[in-house]
């Protein structure tokens, strides 16, 4: 296997070059040229020479090699690799990486794993085209667990679900699993977003259902807009009026919630908003844009 | 091992009872009574009888047993268990669970793992008191990977870091690791929050440093407040003026960023804001509070 290329993070855009050369045991690699799409990142290109054997030893530039050497590979040469959505924080999937899988992920910026059942490398998306575009790679304190922090091109699970985690143990124990309603593992912001979406659906499917504040807001744009304006004012007041921290957290929660109802009406997800923020910040964008606008 | 108790999610508060009885092989368990703090959840209590042996077979209520049976334990009886912060989405740590560790996590709602080095169960926090209070448990599509979605009482890593993931491979490759500055694996919202904090620090440590829009806002409350108000108005305008989705995402990004600068001045974290939202929503709180306020 031979990998050569360069990569950079825009927030600290010094390019890093490296090369992975094929070992003598596999003198006739099949050469493939790859070019990678990396939204939010400087273009990355790499030339990968795949050896015919899957266990090709690799020779790497020293820093790159040191990183791979420092991972505490288990007795089978593997470490846990977790793919996480950089914008939402959703855990997309978990697999295992061997040395080559980690090397390929770092160089290609596509989340790559070692398939224990097929005894081979596989890049998530090579069949579905739903690649996970890796923006950062983290090792844990024990150096035996890896996070691929990236942006998925589409649903990660082979079932078509956004992530592979949609079976709640407590739902099963409480019997609500019988409704056949799958529920993705969501953190607070995205649970709230899902609740707002559910209220919107209920307006259509259960017009005489339980009333709720969210439904009222969804049905009354004037009320919603006045609430967003009012909550922004109340948040500001906590600063100007030197109110306590709890009050600030509470008013920010109100502003966030009401703004998210507005996003729902516009069919905009929090993930899209965060993507805007990420792209701006990786280009020092928010600061620059506003600086430009105001000065 | 004998575990009995009940648990419920407030959003669907039907209690679920179960019992785990000790097998005949271990007739003299040591009884411990535990009571658990579960912020955002109905109180959970469980009586756990620990057998003197660590490999006690367990007899469980049928649903509970079915869940444990359905996990695809590996040849060593283990599955990957990932602890994730329910509010921020941060991956706190990754360990392994065996059948007993998963059973104990589900019943006690404290993230519990199987230590491969010590060949015993360990509940994160049993020494440091920094428990991870589990709100939900998810299995992946292959049923060999588990998420403990919970709220940590304090830093998770034994080093005192918030999470165990603070070593970026790209930082090492780019040489910025030489600064000895550790960087936690953060998703977009929390990277932005960290950037704003950094600007605040720079105002004090580098008063003649590079100017930035964030610093300007941090130093001028009047400007900041007018910006928060203005961005709220522009977000509203995208709805009233039927502007396109991209415009909405962009204005929401602006509102979020400026509000977060205000949060920084009040020393309030996004995690605190999200905790407020979670607690309200798990009590149908936002809807009820606002409904009360307005009707």
UniProtKB/TrEMBL annotation, chains A, B:
User: Which organism encodes this protein?
Assistant: Rhynchospora breviuscula
Q: Name one GO biological process term.
A: L-histidine biosynthetic process
Q: Which protein, by its recorded name, is this? A: Phosphoribosyl-AMP cyclohydrolase domain-containing protein
Q: Which family does it belong to?
A: In the N-terminal section; belongs to the PRA-CH family.
Q: Which keywords fit this entry according to its UniProt record?
A: Amino-acid biosynthesis, ATP-binding, Histidine biosynthesis, Hydrolase, Multifunctional enzyme, Nucleotide-binding
Lineage: superkingdom? Eukaryota
Cite a single GO MF annotation: phosphoribosyl-ATP diphosphatase activity
Q: Which reaction does it catalyse?
A: 1-(5-phospho-beta-D-ribosyl)-ATP + H2O = 1-(5-phospho-beta-D-ribosyl)-5'-AMP + diphosphate + H(+); 1-(5-phospho-beta-D-ribosyl)-5'-AMP + H2O = 1-(5-phospho-beta-D-ribosyl)-5-[(5-phospho-beta-D-ribosylamino)methylideneamino]imidazole-4-carboxamide
What region holds the Phosphoribosyl-AMP cyclohydrolase domain? 93-166
Q: In which pathway does it act?
A: Amino-acid biosynthesis; L-histidine biosynthesis; L-histidine from 5-phospho-alpha-D-ribose 1-diphosphate: step 3/9; Amino-acid biosynthesis; L-histidine biosynthesis; L-histidine from 5-phospho-alpha-D-ribose 1-diphosphate: step 2/9
Is Kinase tagged as a keyword? no
One Pfam match, given by its short name, reads: PRA-CH
């Amino acid at each position: 296997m031979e990998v050569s290329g360069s990569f950079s993070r825009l927030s600290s855009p010094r390019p890093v070059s490296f090369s992975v050369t094929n070992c003598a045991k596999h003198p006739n690699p099949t050469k493939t040229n790859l070019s990678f799409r990396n939204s939010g990142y400087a273009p990355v290109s790499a030339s990968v020479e795949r050896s015919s054997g899957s266990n090709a030893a690799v020779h790497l530039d020293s820093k790159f090699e040191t990183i791979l050497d420092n991972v505490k590979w288990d007795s089978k040469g593997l470490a846990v690799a977790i793919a996480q959505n950089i914008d939402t924080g959703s855990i997309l999937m978990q697999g295992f990486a061997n040395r080559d899988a980690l090397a390929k992920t770092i160089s290609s910026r596509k989340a790559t794993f070692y398939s224990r059942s097929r005894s081979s490398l596989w890049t998530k998306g090579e069949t579905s085209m739903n690649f996970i575009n890796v923006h950062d790679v983290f090792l844990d304190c024990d150096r035996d667990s890896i996070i691929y922090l990236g942006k998925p091109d589409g649903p990660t699970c082979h079932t078509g679900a956004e992530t592979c985690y949609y079976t709640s143990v407590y739902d099963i124990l409480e019997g609500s699993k019988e409704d056949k309603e799958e529920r993705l593992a969501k953190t607070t912001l995205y649970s709230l977003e899902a609740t707002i979406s559910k209220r919107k659906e209920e307006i259509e499917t259960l017009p005489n259902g339980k009333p709720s504040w969210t439904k009222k807001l969804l049905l009354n744009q004037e009320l919603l807009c006045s609430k967003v304006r009012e909550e922004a004012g109340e948040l500001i007041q906590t600063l100007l009026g030197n109110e306590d921290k709890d009050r600030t957290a509470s008013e920010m929660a109100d502003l966030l919630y009401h703004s998210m109802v507005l996003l729902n009406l516009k069919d905009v997800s929090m993930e899209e908003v965060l993507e805007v923020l990420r792209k701006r910040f990786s280009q020092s964008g928010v600061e620059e844009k506003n600086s430009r606008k105001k000065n």
